[in-house]
Amino acid sequence: MTVQINRRITQGVLVGGVRIGAGNPVVVQSMTNTDTADVNASVEQIKALAQAGSELVRLTVNNEAAAGAIPEIRDRLARQGIAVPLIGDFHFNGHRLLRDHPACAEALAKYRINPGNVGSGEKRDSQFASMIETACRFDKPVRIGVNWGSLDKGLVARLMDENTRAEKPLDSVEMVHKVMMVSALESARRAEEVGLPADRIVLSCKMSGVQDLIAVYRTLAAKCDYALHLGLTEAGMGSKGVVASSAALAVLLQEGIGDTIRISLTPEPGGARTQEVIVAQQLLQSMGIRAFTPVVVACPGCGRTTSTYFQQLAKDVQNHLRNMMPEWRKAHPGVEAMSVAVMGCVVNGPGESKQANIGISLPGTGESPSAPVYVDGEKVATLKGDDISGQFMALVDDYVRDHY
């Protein structure tokens, strides 16, 4: 079930075929970590990210080879039926790459520009303007993405001088926040002066501190109506990255701030890049903002559940649901809102199972070796034997077929 949150009213931005802002659903995006010039590897990872549910995918465009590869990547994806919009991530030499590779500029659905990395002094203004002019020529939106690890040194010096002369100077933390916001807003204003419409501009101010990110976005949201991209930069690995990103983004999303999000996880060695997509979806779904995959409700286990069978069943069911979603999404609209309960004993098992669309209550230690199954609150079967898992998943498949 989705909930209504009073979202901040923003400009709507069309990125490829995806609309962000203006009250549209919060969009999930991700970024590749392949060498963009390696077309095969990049295509495979983008395909995996898109199939996992990423609605926008960003790639590094850092040299001639990467820029030259973008059209082929776009075309290969299209031949495989993958229409996810591609975003080019530019730093330092983006003005030159976009100028020298018009096919790349045309193939991308959006450009990401970091105003701290487009040059300094007079070069900064001309190189920034060059990128915006290219965006105007090809009718592409731009994300002006400020990052506190790469602030515009000239802007920092100017604002620090002003702060020193102020009657009540800001402290160092407040100054960082101010520099971030001024960089984003001044760059957006400059982009509009060059000719880019406001409905082609997305802003972000990415930081790695949870409270810093919340403070900056609250103020930024109050000062403009541009669409905003949320993300905790350099969030980290594993549970730390998941918890920190969720803590920051959940607060802002609950306040109606944010039109598109990315969870910037450091992958575990050998881990799948798609994990950042899954976490972003789970965050939005757990808050009731969007639904992507049926929810599995499972108990944590206790002394009554010495068997690990229910844990394995919960994992198997969750994997089955996610694997089936590409097919179900087309054939069974609405299935993403389904809830499935896998419980481990009689204490809360029957009650939780009755609350779900379909649920199973496995026997705890010393309980009768049978597992009642409930469908929409009514007991419909009791499973026994060595293949409870297979029997239950067949019932889940039947439920999907019959109800969606």
UniProtKB/TrEMBL annotation:
Transmembrane segments: none
Keyword set includes Iron-sulfur: yes
The keyword 4Fe-4S belongs to this UniProt entry's keyword annotation: yes
Gene3D superfamilies xrefs: Dihydropteroate synthase-like, Sulfite Reductase Hemoprotein, domain 1
GO biological process: one example: isopentenyl diphosphate biosynthetic process, methylerythritol 4-phosphate pathway
GO molecular function ontology, one term from the record: iron ion binding
Every IspG C-terminal domain range: 296-397
Amino-acid positions noted as binding [4Fe-4S] cluster in the UniProt annotation, renumbered to this chain: 299, 302, 345, 352
Cofactor(s) for this UniProt protein: [4Fe-4S] cluster
Cofactor remark from the record: Binds 1 [4Fe-4S] cluster.
UniProt enzyme class: oxidoreductase
Domain IspG TIM-barrel: 10-280
Reaction it catalyzes: (2E)-4-hydroxy-3-methylbut-2-enyl diphosphate + oxidized [flavodoxin] + H2O + 2 H(+) = 2-C-methyl-D-erythritol 2,4-cyclic diphosphate + reduced [flavodoxin]
Pathway: Isoprenoid biosynthesis; isopentenyl diphosphate biosynthesis via DXP pathway; isopentenyl diphosphate from 1-deoxy-D-xylulose 5-phosphate: step 5/6
Keywords in alphabetical order: 4Fe-4S, Iron, Iron-sulfur, Isoprene biosynthesis, Metal-binding, Oxidoreductase
EC number(s) reported in the record: 1.17.7.3
NCBIfam families per UniProt: ispG_gcpE, PRK00366.1
Family matches, as PANTHER family: 4-HYDROXY-3-METHYLBUT-2-EN-1-YL DIPHOSPHATE SYNTHASE (PTHR30454), 4-HYDROXY-3-METHYLBUT-2-EN-1-YL DIPHOSPHATE SYNTHASE (FERREDOXIN), CHLOROPLASTIC (PTHR30454:SF0)
Primary role: Converts 2C-methyl-D-erythritol 2,4-cyclodiphosphate (ME-2,4cPP) into 1-hydroxy-2-methyl-2-(E)-butenyl 4-diphosphate.
Record-stated family: Belongs to the IspG family.
Name listed for the protein in its UniProt record: 4-hydroxy-3-methylbut-2-en-1-yl diphosphate synthase (flavodoxin)
UniProt organism field: Candidatus Thiodiazotropha endolucinida
Gene name of the encoded protein: ispG
